[in-house]
Amino acid sequence: MNASAEGTPRPKREVEWLGVVSLTLGLLRFALQLPLVGTIIGFVSGIVALVRIKKSRGALVGKVPAVSGVILAFLILVRFSLVLTVSSARESARRATCVANEQKMFRAIQLYADEHDGKYPNSPNELRAYLTREYDLVCPMEPDIKKDSYILVCDTNSPNGVMIRESGNRHFGGSNVAYADGRIVWESAHPTHDRVVRYFRLLFLPECLLDLAGD
Ligand SMILES: [Zn+2]
Questions:
Q1: Residue 138 Cα, ligand 1 centroid: separation in angstroms?
Q2: How far apart are the CA of 171 and the centre of ligand 1, in A?
Q3: What's the 34 CA to ligand 1 centre distance in angstroms?
Q4: 200 C-alpha to ligand 1 centroid (Å)
Q5: Where exactly are the structural domains of the chain?
Q6: pLDDT digits (tens, 9 = 90+) for 86-112
Q7: Integer distance in angstroms from the first to the last C-alpha of the chain?
Q8: 61-91 burial string, b = 16+ CB within 10 Å, else e?
């Protein structure tokens, strides 16, 4: 006796919803600017969905949305990493230009002092005659090109005295600082930075720098 084909119960097929979740998260990234963590969850969900579908031997369906979700999430992640790499390289180049600006200003300060009986300038504005280009006084990260990006200061708490500071934290949350010994370093933002700079700028220039030059 053979069992008839009609008598054999057909296996119940269910949808693997993780695949649908994966695709939905990918689409939401475009539609609602969903945070990147959503895309990562979508990518993992898609992979899990595909594994579960394969292991189910036909009991689970929904391969198309799962594959679409994984591909979409992959493309979003690749695009994000490319944008990150390009913007990081661009920022590094801008920071290098900013350091070059401070080097030029540093030399201009020395020239100014030579021509003014050792007196140092009070502001970057007085250095214009000693710089070849007007925009040497503007950090490439400064949105307003008419605004000077640097201030001349003297920090008596520092052994070498700070000579040039940026007027804002434009580079990776910090700024470039030129010391009286010629070193130019990147420093992270300090909560009291602006107040301290203003204080020393008002009280100690140019006398403080003259003292430093005499050491
Ligand atoms: Zn800068």
A1: 8
A2: 6
A3: 32
A4: 21
A5: 13-88, 91-214
A6: 988 888 899 999 999 999 988 888 888
A7: 111
A8: ebeebbbbbbebbeebeeeeeeeeeeeeeee
